[in-house]
Amino acid sequence: MQIIGDDEDLRDILDRVLATGVTYANEMRLAPTEVDPEERLVDCRVSMMQRQAQPDALLVEMSDVTRRNRISRENALLIQHGAGRQMIRQLAHEIKNPLGGLRGAAQLLARQLQSDELKEYTDVIISEADRLALLVDTLLGPGGPPNKQKLNIHELLEYVLRLVQPALGENIRVRRDYDAGLPDIDLDRDQMVQAFLNLTQNAAAVLEGRGQITLRSRAIMNFTIGDHRHPVVASIEVEDDGPGIPLELQDSIFYPLVTSKPEGHGLGLSVAQELISRHGGLIEFESRPGRTVFQVRIPLKTGHNPRG
């Protein structure tokens, strides 16, 4: 049974320790194997065996820290989301309050003007005030608690694909990897459509007309979100084979107004995270050139246990 794959980085480490005798100690990633189908993060220590009979023997010690690293990363995402919410409230307070007065003053001024040419300027002011109000509403996201009903997540994903189809074109393929045994989930349909629409549109945008989007669903047992361990969560993934998220943006990708696209407004991921959080869930991600995966985790049951 293969526990560790034929990992090139690990071979290089072993060769280096054999050649120099210097102990290696660091974190490293191990590729999936038949025992562990997911990539693992381990603390690895490689040192020379102090035995005369085996002068070239190495001692390899590994400690799996995948779960510890995931929990740490998850907590960072939750903190980021909380900070993002605070930014949204501050933006709403600073922008929306003066907009009503600005628009009202422009309307009053327009009534006093006799020249149609001058009224064009007040029309611009009113139009821009409305545009900024719409931007703030988008930042705030759909209001109110979720209006939950039993939904088939795969039917919802297919609906989202129909909405995003015009942006896909002929050279973007869609691969479906659905778990047919995943039960219906209590969800707010409108909020879920918006969240997965934002994720799918982002994936389509980074592919620039060519590539593959994969939609994947799984049930995961004993999964922690925040301070709670859930017996079962639904994991719905949106994956693309595009260039990946720039390293300098990965620590802030869920903040409002953060984007790598010149024409983007940086609201899609922030709004999606907010909508998923209203269902007790969380969006995580992994990204490298050629593979970016956004993982939506939603509890299948309302009950939860403290993290253990």
CATH superfamily of the largest domain: Histidine kinase-like ATPase, C-terminal domain
**What radius of gyration results from the CA coordinates?**
25 Å
Order of helices and strands: HEEEHHEHEEHEEHEEE
Low-confidence stretches: 302-308
In a few lines, what is going on in this structure?
The protein has 6 helices and 11 strands. The protein has 308 residues and is α+β, with helices and mostly antiparallel strands.
Task: Present the secondary structure layout.
Elements: H1 8-20, E1 24-30, E2 40-48, E3 58-64, H2 66-112, H3 116-140, E4 148-151, H4 153-168, E5 172-177, E6 185-188, H5 189-207, E7 211-225, E8 228-240, H6 268-277, E9 282-288, E10 291-299, E11 305-306
Parallel strand pairs: 5-7
Antiparallel strand pairs: 1-2, 2-3, 4-6, 7-8, 8-10, 8-11, 9-10
List keywords for this structure.
alpha+beta, 6-stranded mixed beta sheet, 3-stranded antiparallel beta sheet, elongated, single chain, disordered C terminus, 6 helices, 3 domains, Heat Shock Protein 90, 308 residues
Verbal overview:
There is one protein chain. With 308 residues, the chain is α+β, with helices and mostly antiparallel strands. It has helices at 8-20, 66-112, 116-140, 153-168, 189-207, 268-277, and strands at residues 24-30, 40-48, 58-64, 148-151, 172-177, 185-188, 211-225, 228-240, 282-288, 291-299, 305-306. Strands 5, 7, 8, 9, 10 and 11 form a six-stranded mixed beta sheet that branches. Helix 2 runs antiparallel to helix 3 (116-140). It is elongated.
